Amino acid sequence: MQQNEHIIAVIGLGYVGLPLAIEFGKKYRVIGFDIYRPRVEELERGEDHTLEADLEGMQQARTLFATTGSKGLTFTSDPAELEQVNTYIVTVPTPIDRFNMPDLTPLLSASEIIGKTLRKGDIVIYESTVYPGCTEEDCVPILERVSGLSYNEDFFCGYSPERINPGDKVNTLTKIKKITSGSTPEVADTVDKLYNSILLNGTHRAPNIKVAETAKAVENSQRDVNISFMNELALICDRVGIDTNDVIEAAGTKWNFRMYRPGLVGGHCISVDPYYLAHKAKALGYEPHVILSGRAVNNSIAKFIADKVLKLMIQKDHKIKDSNVLLLGVTFKENCPDCRNTKVVDIASELEEFGCKVDIYDPWASKAVIRHEYGKELLDKIDPDKQYSAIIACVSHNQFKEFDFKKYHDKGAVIFDVKNFVDRSLVDGRL
After folding, report:
1. Fewest 10 Å CB contacts: which of 57, 206, 291, 416?
2. Helical H runs in 45-156?
3. CA atoms of 32 and 15, how far apart (whole Å)
């Protein structure tokens, strides 16, 4: 397939799919497909609640189609419009279930949709995070069954794992190096050239799909394990009676020390990908001790923070039951609206179990999303006259750096700093 012959469908228009559809839409005919019709309508209005899209670029790509009809970007929720496609890129989420097992439902559903319009010569590229072997062992059989075509004879696959970092306006899609792979050497060439046509820093071509799948899981598992070590250090330092950040600053004077920090580990990647790698390891008869122990430590931090705040409240003679506690921030990271797998709600739930009345305020988060996903209500604004027994700075949004912590500190409230950004003289505890 020649580069100018690609007619691309991006399946899934979330944090990963939309930026990809926009960039490819500037050079190719691209159909952005999502089963959720309100998302398509939002994009057709030129809006994006994730704040990840280059809206100017999106309009440019949509205008290109309106003027040429042969290149540019359109959006749809109608699978019939995929009939014209010859290159599919799958960017649907791959979450975990309540037992921390991979949930491939969106991925397998997307494969079924593609199978209905798949034709000879087509290429299906997966970007969704998976465990090693998932593309060829789980997705390809569905493509074959639904389409009636044979893998690597009639159609082909590639894998190019996403590296989207929500809220990061520096390491954006076109500026990162991307891993590519294909099910045959020729298809690997085609996939690599396709991505190189929109990237500024090129690609790394993996020798096969399994290597590319594993690399994706390893990237985030490594960060998870490193952060878990810092979180375990925080648990130790708390018992010793010293400040974790003082220890890290001192150790950081050594030339080869890596400055990881303790904290809540949420989001779609770091808190999820290790379970995919662990799942595959267990299926092969190996118990991944380091990966799972890191996950256990990181999952314990929300409870540690809640318990620590309760102890500090008792030390300041605050009544626990019916006390007011304010959580600043609920997104999984600063200055972005992404609330996927946020651990802040775990702090809230833990405090509520002890009878605290918890308020959560976050100017970045969607009230509807938090209500739907977690059953929590967000404040429209903070009541300046309300008395709080404790305030937990969970997320370091720029807006919170101007928050008047001193006013509450002077009134005896416990101030706990999760992200190490509050004036230290005002803080009763921090990770």
Report:
1. 57
2. 55-68, 105-115, 134, 140-147
3. 13
DSSP-derived secondary structure letter, 29: E
Backbone angles phi and psi of 183, in degrees to 5: -80, -15
Q: Are 357 and 386 in contact (CB under 8 A)?
A: no
Alpha-carbon distance 18 to 37, whole Å? 15
According to CATH, the topology of domain 220-299 is N-(1-d-carboxylethyl)-l-norvaline Dehydrogenase; domain 2 (1.10.1040)
pLDDT at 261 over 80: yes
Neighbours of 345 (CB within 10 A): 22
CB atoms closer than 10 angstroms to residue 32: 30
Tell me, what DSSP letter sits at residue 384? Answer: T
How many other C-beta atoms can be found within 10 angstroms of the C-beta atom of residue 291?
Answer: 22
In Å, how far are 232, 246, 357 from 417, measured between CA atoms?
Answer: 17, 14, 19
> Under CATH, to which class is 3-207 assigned?
alpha beta
Extract the tokens encoding 151. 């893998």
pTM, whole model, 2 decimals? Answer: 0.94
Please give the positions annotated as active site.
269
pLDDT at 156: 98
Which residue(s) pair with 64 in the sheet?
none
**Taking every pair of C-alpha atoms in the chain, what is the biggest distance, in angstroms?**
73
- The residues near 236 (Cβ < 8 Å, ≥ 6 apart) are none
239 sits in which H/E element: helix 209-240
pLDDT class of 38 with cuts at 50, 70, 90: very high
For the structural domain made of 301-431, what CATH number should be given? 3.40.50.720
